[in-house]
Amino acid sequence: MEQGTKRFINKHIVITGAAAGIGKGIAQRFAEEGGKVVIADRSRESGEAVARAINESGGKATYIFVDLIDPNSINELITKAVDAFGPIDIAVSNAGIAESQSSAPVISVEGWTASMT
Questions:
Q1: Mean pLDDT of 24-29
Q2: Relative to the CA of 49, which of 20, 61, 103, 117 has its CA 20 to 30 Å away?
Q3: pTM of this prediction?
Q4: What percent helix, strand, coil does the chain show, rounded to 5?
């Protein structure tokens, strides 16, 4: 992408579920477009690898652990993200799990909660 066409220069973006898959792709693209990206995920090793790869390619990224089932972890994510790059401009809620193969009528409340947070 040409220098003058980057759309997210100096924008602070927090992306949950950014250690792999679609979230990783979203993080890479925002970084390519000039964004300062927080890789928010519970997979520390993968999240750190994504942040490292973005930084090595000239982007700006950091990894922050988050467990979206735990409200305290979410509060810590926000605090650490602001400490890292300042006010958050964009948040992408990409995290999700599909650990249960249950259909909606038979899934447990716990399974539903875990898959939707």
A1: 98
A2: 117
A3: 0.82
A4: 45, 20, 40
